[in-house]
Design a protein that fits this description.
tt1808, chain A; two-stranded antiparallel ribbon; 12 strands; alpha+beta; six-stranded mixed beta sheet
């Protein structure tokens, strides 16, 4: 796990409040608090991906979910559409850090597409998420980002138009059918 500098008291208090509030899922993206609400079409696209990766996720001893991801030392608290994490790390109520995941999937909507394309991609790479799958419903494309670094992902596969098979690299090593997205 990457060790990042510990957050300051106001950052900690805000993230604690967000994590323990009731109601809809809430994110903090670059200091902006946002309620996460998804349309049925958005959820359907996420489920298409989840259904395809679930057999391999189980083989890897992992789970899928949309649990909290903390980005310590930054004003960010993410709730991805799908994250794949080792089963033993996904216990208890603690948030994970992106480098504790194997894959993060974001499905865009019209109001957050640019955030998923630019800000989240940069932050997931900076915090060591090994794979980031962007399902861009606005552009109708799928892109796989891998090999994270401080300046972003160094490897990009795509964007591929919906309907094109897209390969998820190791440890998944599977081909996604993007027809139904």
């Amino acid at each position: 796990m990457t060790r990042l500098r510990r957050g300051n008291a106001p950052e900690h208090a805000l993230k604690y409040a967000i994590q323990h509030q009731r109601g809809d899922r809430t994110e903090i993206v670059e200091g902006l608090i946002t309620q996460v609400t998804s349309s049925w079409d958005h959820e359907r696209a996420a489920e298409e991906i989840r259904d395809q990766i679930t057999p391999r996720v189980r083989e890897l001893g992992c789970v899928t979910g949309s649990g909290n991801l903390d980005l310590p030392g930054s004003p960010n608290w993410y709730v991805p559409d799908i994250a794949v994490a080792p089963r033993e790390l996904a216990r208890g109520g603690d948030a994970l850090v992106p480098d504790q995941t194997l894959l993060i999937v974001e499905v865009t909507s019209e109001f957050d597409a640019e955030t998923d394309r630019v800000v989240n991609r940069k932050r997931y790479a900076e915090y060591g998420a090994p794979l980031y799958l962007l399902v861009d419903r606005v552009e109708k494309t799928v892109t796989v980002f891998s090999e994270p670094g401080g300046l972003g992902y160094t490897r990009t596969d795509g964007p591929h138009p919906f309907g094109t098979p897209v390969r998820l690299p190791e440890p998944f090593d599977l081909e996604l059918d993007t027809t139904g997205l």
